[in-house]
Design a protein that fits this description.
Elements lengths: L18 H5 L1 H12 L3 H13 L11 H21 L16 H9 L5 H11 L2 H14 L16 H21 L3
Length: 181
Amino acid sequence: MMKNTQKKLKAKHFRYLSKRYIKNPDLFLEEVLHQSGLNWSSNFNYMINSCFYPPMRTSTTFEFGYIYIHLAQMIEIGVVFLEQYNLEPMDKDDVFQYQCLEIFNAEVEDARIFPTKSLRAFYGFKSLKEWYNVLDNLLLYKDYGKDNMEQIQLYLEYIPIREFLVKLPLVLSEIYKRGGL
């Protein structure tokens, strides 16, 4: 008889996600995505841009901590869905490749969401540990201002990072609408 060597996800594997959401990721989608009524993508976009480029900060009342925590939770809930559906992250070389013109047109031109492909690409581009580094940088850069912004390290990955993070709530909303993957 073979042993089941698959690790079960536990709260200790995550920084921000509670045990109840790990056990029931659909509850997270219901409570955070559906009931909040926020435009998560817009909030994430503002947060990311204002962290990497302080002159873009226009609001002194932006709830950075609240938005930041939910961004972190959404990154972690994606890992829960990967495990729940036994999905493997894409190879990094394949993340931005399209298998056919139809999928490219549907996703890019028609703005259709393919949750399985999107989650696999998200975690193929960066592992959970690497996404934690992105979150840590956002937290660090939020305190920078115009006078010390030259210390912020912008690099080419900023563009896909921003795109992935802004798209993440849309992917999770699509999972919610479909009732799963």
